[in-house]
Every structure is written in C-alpha cells, then in structure tokens.
Amino acid sequence: MTDIWFRTGVATVLAAEGQVTDAMPEVVIGSVRGPVGQAFASMMGQVKGHTRMFVVRDLNQAVRPATMMTTKVTIKNMAYAELLGGVVQAAMGDAIVDCLIEDILPRDQADDLCMIITVWLDPRCVEDENLDHKDLYRTNYEATKLAISRAMTGRPTVEELIANRKTVKHYALEGIIDY
Hints:
The chain is built from 4 helices and 5 strands; from the N terminus they run ββαββαβαα. By secondary structure, it is α+β, with helices and mostly antiparallel strands.
C-alpha cells in the first residue's frame, strides 16, 4: 500500500494577453484506500451544474492514477460543458500522463492512487469569438502539471510561506493592505 494519503496542490497559469483562459486547478492526491479514495468514490454521483467526470485523454483512454475532475463554476450550457470535457479535459489528461513519464507521479503506484481536480474555466470562454483553444490547452496543461508537482513535493513548504509572509500577498488585497 502507498504511503501517499493526502497531498494537495494548487497552481495558477495566466492566459495569453487578450484571452480569458487562465487555469487554476486544485488537486488532492491520495491512496484509493484512504480519505481521497473515499471522496473519489463519493463523487460518482452527479450534482446539477457541477458535472463530475473521469479525466480521459480520448475515448477509452482514462488516465492513471484514476482522476475525477469537476468545475468550480456552475455549468449553464453545452458550449461550456464541451470546452470543459474537450480541450480542458484533454490538457489535464496529457499533463497527468506526462507526470508519470517524468516521475512526478510514481508509476509503480498509479493503480493505488487517485486524484480529484477542481477546474476553473472562465464562463466568458464560451462567449469569446476569438477564444484561443491552444492557449486554453496550454494553461490547463501547465497548471495541472504544476499543481500535481506541488502536491507531490509539498510546495510551498511551511518555511517558504513564513519567509514570504511580508512579500507575497493575495491580489485582492492590492491597495487594501501594505506590508
């Protein structure tokens, strides 16, 4: 059995200029026999507006470790669902397989682990006539890979958080808090 019980990671990769394709996945990774596995199994039912689906690279190509994705934004139309279950899902699937290739995720534990990833897909994407699907792929691929890497390496560490306490602040605090 794996000793990976509960690891978390987040990442933000910003869109190219003029795009609304920012990606901000949050990932939890753990043993199928532990709390992550229980949460994973509990997600098999659907919640209106927050579809849950396995991450697949294409038809009949579910990734390992088994990964469930769900959106942070309520799905209101098929255009949104198609972007989420199309370009975004494919980007995440490719990132997960590349994490196996690059030993970010342990290959020998791929069937003993599972992941849950919450996905940010800006609702404006479906209305953007100039949506760059390549940038949507890029941001979701890079952010997924980075979030998984951070989860597996425990980043940021407690020491990093303490060291940057007065130099890093949430973007929403601009003009509100001075350090």
